[in-house]
Amino acid sequence: MLTTPEERATPAEIRKKSGERIAIRWQDGHESALGARYLRGLCPCAQCVSEVTGQRMVSEEHIAPEVSIEAARTVGNYALHFSFSDGHTTGIYSFDYLRRICPCPACSAAGHGLGA
Amino acid sequence: MTQTLITESKVLDALRSVMDPDLHRDIVSLNFIRNMKIDGESVSFDVNLTTPACPVKERLREQSRQAVIAAIPGVKDVRVNMTAEVRRPPAPETSRIKGVKNIIAVGSGKGGVGKSTVASNIAVSLAKSGAAVGLLDADIYGPSIPIMMASSGEPEVSNQIIQPVTAHGVKLMSMGYLSGEMPLIWRGPMAHKALQQSLLGVNWGELDYLIVDLPPGTGDVHLTLVQTVPVTGAVIVSTPQDVGLQISMKTLRMFQQTKVPVLGIVENMSTYVCPHCGGRDDIFGHGGARKAAETLGIPFLGEIPLDPAIRKHSDGGRPVVLAEPDSASARALSEMTGALAQQISIQAFRTIPLSIIEE
Fold it and tell me: Which residues of A are less than 8 Å from B228 in CB distance?
């Protein structure tokens, strides 16, 4: 069944599995499991991605393996915000972005669309 | 002769044939029917709509009456009482303003298209129809709502909570109040703080609609708004001019990117009718916004004429829908507001609640 880009990037359900990961079921039925360290390493904020060059300054290998998500909340209608245990709180992860960074084998094979 | 007994379930069955034209469901399954009373051959009930500004109110009243009379023999008298209760779209309790059901952003691509005039007339029209309405002037560069609503008073502050000023039945807050006579020369973070305070630090009370008049274009204030509260939807005001429209498209895309549903486009400064000779002239062109709305699949809410009376009454502090309610311009503004209220109701039914389940 064909799905619209709108449905692909709109969550049907968001679960926070303790501090370890965020599980999102999208409106097209796809499911994404996003680990704390993975999310922290792909933070889209201006401290983690250079505003001038667009180059990623902080990535997963810079992050302690035990990092956890202390709090998660929705931002308006379009994004999630996380407070990580390393004190980092500046990233706003739009649903479009979260869908693009889905780490499941199928999405990874199709490429993350991050220009990387 | 045996008299058929009139029962509540028979009346409800009859009313199932009456459809809400916007929500595409019958008025019984939408739970609109309240307070049914059957007294011998007389039936009375309320039809509780989703907005007091509903443009098809009288049509639904008549359809309901006819449906009952046609389906149940023996009914002599049907009294239909039209009521309304604005529904609140589902959203996490933590991220919205307590008591405020719908937040509507009014934006434009560029300045000078009459966005604040349209916003103040929407607010007053909704209040006139019986809704509880607030109007937040978030145009930090040129806050004009206090002039258009003739409110010179400053809001009172008690316990860090701002008490909004009331004008023409609408609760008002302007970011202009935060600066007095001084122009606002703010950096982004200051605008961000001021808007958050104007949204969350104001005693809005119970509101059906909070209309937010945004600055022109796309910027800090827009982002703060969509990040601070769940916005039910946005209205885009444009002139018919191509260039005005193209810039408005950027505003439209901004709302789409932040997943704020675009409820429709209003074409302001449409046809000019000369007050001396009655001749018509399309000074800025005509119909451009309608065409753009059709291409993009976005509702077109209406055309507001370029009428000196609209400007005059706005400058005088009494929006034209109050000052000259029977004029063509006031009627165009009221009809546009009705179309908007319909879109808000549709949106409230369409929104899927989104919250994070903690495990």
Answer: 76
Query: Quick check: is B2 in a domain?
Result: no
> Does residue A115 register a pLDDT over 60?
no
Whether the CB of B354 is below 8 Å from some CB of chain A: the reply is: yes
Chain B residues whose beta carbon lies within 8 Å of the beta carbon of residue A10: 259
Determine, for residues B359 and A16 on separate chains, whether the beta-carbon distance falls below 8 Å: yes
Same domain, B316 and B197: yes
Of A99, A80, A11, A28, the closest CA to residue B351 belongs to A11
Q: What is the CATH number of the domain that holds B64?
A: 3.30.300.130
CATH assignment at residue A79:
3.30.2020.30
Prediction ipTM score: 0.83
By C-alpha distance, the chain B residue nearest A81 is B227
Q: In the prediction, which pLDDT does B300 show?
A: 93
Total domains present in chain B: 2
Residues of chain B contacting residue A46, judged by C-beta atoms under 8 Å apart: none
Provide the number of structural domains found in chain A: 1
Chain A: residue whose CA lies nearest to B356: A14
Chain A environment of B92 (Cβ under 8 Å): 73-74
Claim to verify: residue B148 and residue B231 sit in the same structural domain: yes
Rounded to 10 deg, the angle between the B288-296 and B242-257 helix axes is 30
pLDDT tens profile B107-155: 988 888 889 999 999 999 999 999 999 999 998 877 888 888 888 777 8
B258 in contact with A at a CB cutoff of 8 Å? Answer: yes
Residues B331 and B289 both lie in one domain: yes
Q: What tens digit of pLDDT does each residue of B245-299 get?
A: 776 778 888 888 888 889 999 999 888 877 788 788 887 778 888 888 888 888 9
* DSSP H stretches of helix in B157-206: 188-200
The mean-pLDDT minimum among B212-216, B237-241, B263-267 falls in: B237-241
Q: Are B103 and B136 in contact (CB under 8 A)?
A: no
